[in-house]
Amino acid sequence: MMSMSDISRIPSHWPNRQYSQSVKLSGILWHFQLSKHPDANTKSILLIHGSGASAHSWKNIFISLAKNYTVIAIDLPGHGFTLGAQKAQLHIDEISKHLNELLEAIDTPSPDIIIGHSAGANCALALSLRLKKCPDTIIGFNPSFVSPPRSLLLLLGPIVNPLFTSSLMSNLLAISIPKTNLINTLLDSTNSLLNQEQRKPYQYLFHQERHIYGTMNFMAASNIPQLLAKSAQINSKFIFVAANQDQWVSKINLMPVLHQYFPQATIHSEQGGHLFHEVNPEKSIEIIQQTIENISQT
Q: Are 192 and 280 in contact (CB under 8 A)?
């Protein structure tokens, strides 16, 4: 059963807060941002952020796309302001099940286009396997189809290490992180030139025990090979953006995976780091818009 909830837990300064909505479904109190286009026939677009982020990461892209389309940006369970998910519900299969439920509840059961960043692209695949109708197109920005290098996991320690997934560790990190430069180190490791304004939402989120707990357990629960093996069942057009300077999703490791599992995909190679879509929203929007126009012409 669906129950609507208020958004008082969302800070007044939060990006695109004017679009925020909250719905409780199956014990999960969702936060999502929704802009419904007045034309019911226009395309619908679902935006799925990566691990450790939230809907805020689509700030500029959301606003631009909302001019012409229905757009939904969600906080994944365990992330941002989506609350109530248990540890078992942070597995990507469970997330896709609950996300499917959310989309049906808000009357957008089959988005025409799903756009995911990093692990959000993995979620896009898992969700598409559940939808009654596959999206026309899936766009993945630096998709997390390969594991991050061990050197980065060692550098950043328990905040990104899947071995540390307890609530006690999350609590300790939430207490200690404000006293360190760990979040800036994490953001810098993406090779993305975020300004201070773009860093603030991440600094806020990683002061929250629930967000740290959700991030660590979401990363630990991923089974990438299994998901890729199932991707052949998805009848969608695939577009991928691979940033040349991305350390987290190494392009040299990613490209063979894309060629193996998505041989018909269109691949854009761009200059930038892991958070390419945040640092380069104009180019990202251009790629998205070009993709939509190509769909309309076919």
A: no
